[in-house]
Design brief:
The protein is of the alpha+beta class. Bound molecules: guanosine-5'-diphosphate (GDP). Guanosine-5'-diphosphate binds at residues 99, 101-107, 147, 199-200, 202-203, 235-237.
Length: 592
């Protein structure tokens, strides 16, 4: 095989098949060569970069060293660290608005946006690019236009933190609600300062003092109550207080180090991206340092681009964008993801190379994801020194249980490892909990509650461990045992299906039989079953009878109707959901 000195570029581990493609050889040739080295491998098996290099050399290739992508990245970031601090200038703070649904986040964002619009701009103000900047005196503030902590936390889960200040909107008549608490905990977990906007004070039933009292109970003490949290009464409707709110945001921002050097290659984060039919991939990005210019070449996640055109939040063409300035950019090779960072690197060849490599890496990262923290895995990670703190999120069916669990779990300390409950709340495990868990490397403890279908899907994707308990000490015990590596062999529960109760029948001597429709999966006669009413588990036990028409059956599949009787339980209501599950023993890795 005389391919003498044919150059090939290799970086990182790859599969045999991938190597064969790179070498323009048949997979079997590569396998044979590996066998010659005493390695029995299959086509889809991964080999490390050293092995790949040896095989390639063996087969007559000259392997070119590729400067690792980390190095290029580090180079850029190091340059920034070494930078003369005097070059860093104040930049506008970047603000996210969070709070309970209907408390006025969108209205507030709209009202603020319109506050600073001059008459000439008013026409073009419909441009929504995902973020906008307003003037306040001679300073500016940038607002992220997607309200809510979902966007905030999903970005954080992807490793991007762009928010400098969180505005917590609380409606003055409604007061603190579940999502208010969630928002506070999301901001706390991200260590972002909070400014409270007590909204809707134009309403006669507004009770701003009550809101302050409720927030004080959650650890946010208003300034006029001797605390540190800035709280501003506002009305998105009458625009009362908006000026003060903006002033206060700047005041709070001034206590943080919000600076960047505008005179260097730009770096920042994608906040929104889409495929536009006419214009190709379009993304709104927020410059975090440096200045982005038309013509700049950049890497961005697994893709790259060259800035073809930029449009600002007022719909105007822009030639450049400085720190904290949002712009819509054309010129991406592919649609990036929200939360991806971009880095301008002068050299187009290098940029393409990095993008190539990242595509490869993406696949590996997906495998990496599969190794997210689970309770079973805690001990290994502690031993490897990867975690010193075990973060938990607690959801339960009643406030009393939340508090009891928080108290019992936060008290746990084993050796160097501390348990920290970063969020607790009443209600089913929702998507927001899962995203917070994913962003903070936390495990979710559900007590008498179940994840809603959305949360289940996201947890699967993000590989977040959700544990369900019905007895407090079992939860506490499991967490303790997990830390010391003694978690008993676990019976992992697998939900096999769900049925919804449509109608109830009283059968003499037998009790209540529920006429059900199997909404997903299947129900089997021997499965365990949970009765769920409004997200809460109200009963758990076994199925007593499972019938199709008059016949006893062993299982009923999705889309079919059936009659279900429960063992010693008759308190069923219409619209209850039966969740059927089976237990499977999970094989644990033996820890030496
Ligand atoms: P979001 O779900 O938090 O984004 O809330 P929205 O901005 O959609 O507002 C929910 C409802 O509250 C809408 O009907 C708004 O018109 C109303 N609203 C918002 N702000 C105010 C306010 O300051 N005063 C009054 N009276 N109503 C408001």
């Amino acid at each position: 095989m005389a391919r003498l000195n044919k150059p090939v570029r290799l970086s990182g581990p790859l599969t045999v098949a991938e190597l064969a493609v790179k070498l323009a050889l048949k997979g079997s040739d590569v396998i044979r060569s590996l066998m010659g080295m005493g390695m029995m491998v299959s086509l889809n098996q991964e080999i490390d970069s050293d092995t790949a290099r040896i095989v390639a050399t063996e087969l007559g290739y000259t392997v070119e060293e590729v400067k690792a992508e980390v190095e290029v990245e580090t180079e850029v970031l190091e340059k920034e660290k070494e930078e003369d601090p005097t070059l860093r200038k104040n930049r506008p703070p970047i603000v996210t608005v969070m709070g309970h649904v209907d408390h006025g986040k969108t209205s507030l964002l709209d009202a603020i946006r319109k506050t600073n619009v001059t008459a000439t701009e008013a026409g073009g103000i419909t441009q929504h690019i995902g973020a906008y900047t307003v003037d306040q005196g001679d300073r500016r503030i940038t607002f992220i236009d997607t309200p809510g902590h979902e966007a905030f936390t999903s970005m954080r889960a992807r490793g991007a933190q762009i928010t400098d200040v969180a505005v917590l909107v609380v409606a003055a008549e409604d007061g603190v609600m579940p999502q208010t608490i969630e928002a506070i905990n999301h901001a706390k977990a991200a260590e972002v300062p909070i400014v409270v906007a007590i909204n809707k004070i134009d309403k006669p039933e507004a009770q701003p003092e009550r809101v302050k009292r409720q927030l004080a109970d959650l650890g946010l003490l208003a300034e006029d109550w001797g605390g540190k949290t800035v709280m501003v009464p506002v009305s998105a409707r009458t625009r009362q207080g908006l000026d003060t709110l903006l002033e206060m945001i700047l005041l709070v921002a001034d206590m943080e180090d919000i600076k960047a050097n505008p005179d260097r290659d730009a770096r920042g984060t994608i906040i929104e991206a889409k495929l536009d039919k006419g214009r190709g991939p379009v993304a709104t990005l927020l410059v975090q340092s440096g200045t982005l210019r038309v013509g700049d070449v950049f890497t961005c996640g697994a893709t790259w681009g060259k800035v073809r055109a930029m449009v600002d939040d007022k719909g105007k063409r822009a030639k450049k964008a400085g720190p904290s300035q949002p712009v819509e950019v054309l010129g991406f090779e592919e649609v990036p993801a929200a939360g991806d960072t971009f880095v301008v690197i002068g050299d187009e060849r290098k940029v393409r190379e990095i993008a190539d490599r990242r595509q490869e890496k993406k696949r590996k990262e997906e495998q990496e994801q599969a190794r997210r923290l689970t309770l079973d895995d805690v001990y290994r990670q502690i031993k490897e020194g990867q975690i010193k703190e075990l973060n938990l999120i607690v959801k339960a069916d009643a406030q009393g249980s939340v508090e009891a669990l928080e108290k019992a779990l936060s008290g746990i300390q084993q050796g160097e490892v501390k348990v920290k409950v970063i969020h607790g709340g009443v209600g089913s495990v929702n998507e927001s909990d899962v995203m917070l868990a994913s962003a903070s490397g936390a495990i979710i403890i559900g007590f008498n509650v179940r994840p809603d279908p959305n949360a289940r899907r996201v947890a699967e994707r993000e590989k977040v461990d959700i544990r369900a308990y019905r007895i407090i000490y079992e939860a506490v015990d499991d967490v303790k045992s997990a830390i010391v590596g003694l978690l008993a062999p676990e019976f992992k529960e697998v939900v096999i299906g769900r049925a919804e109760v449509r109608q109830l029948f009283k059968v003499p001597k037998i009790g209540v039989v529920a006429g059900c429709s199997v909404t997903d999966g299947k129900i089997t006669r021997t499965a365990g079953v949970r009765v769920i009413r409004e997200g809460r588990v109200i009963w758990e036990g076994k199925i007593d009878s499972l019938k199709r028409f008059k016949d006893d059956v062993r299982e009923v599949a999705e889309g079919y109707e059936c009659g279900i009787g429960l063992e010693n339980y008759n308190d069923i209501k219409e619209a209850d959901v039966f969740e059927a599950y089976v237990s499977e023993e999970v094989k644990r890795e033996v820890t030496p």
